[in-house]
Design a protein that fits this description.
Blueprint (H helix, E strand, L loop, with lengths): L7 E6 L2 E6 L6 H18 L3 E5 L8 H16 L3 E5 L3 H9 L8 E2 L2 H9 L2
Parallel strand pairs: 2-3, 3-4, 4-5
Antiparallel strand pairs: 1-2
Helix pairs in contact: 1-2
């Protein structure tokens, strides 16, 4: 069965939906589509727990920051626990510079994020 998503991969671990980015160099249109795909995946899976792995992403454009903030607000409104994991050193620096490490729930890796959410 082929994936309905062009920009993300989706895997379910227990009751936690794990989403990873397929591409690590995203254009504006791909960022918008990726955001829509994550939202659709959460709705399709009817999940209340989401882990987003940024993987090898090394550049965080303002549009991607805006989409992550929008995604967090949307997940919060739907009562979905949301963690971001696998931040490169460069992305972690951007999060800290923008004071986003306090806004998002961050985890060092997927396993840690999944275990944390599974315990909820």
């Amino acid at each position: 069965m082929t994936s309905p998503y062009l920009h993300i991969t989706v895997q379910r671990t227990g009751d936690v939906l794990c989403v990873s980015l397929k591409d690590h160099q995203l254009e504006d249109s791909a960022i918008r589509a990726m955001s829509d795909e994550i939202e659709a995946a959460v709705l399709r899976a009817d999940s209340r727990k989401l882990v987003l792995s940024l993987g090898e992403l090394t550049c965080l454009y303002s549009l991607l920051i805006a989409k992550l903030i929008k995604l967090r607000r949307l997940m919060s409104a739907r009562h979905v626990s949301f963690k971001i994991c696998n931040l490169s050193a460069e992305i972690r620096d951007v999060f800290e510079s923008c004071q986003l490490q306090h806004y998002f729930d961050l985890a060092p890796d997927c396993d840690t994020a999944v275990k944390s959410l599974a315990a909820q």
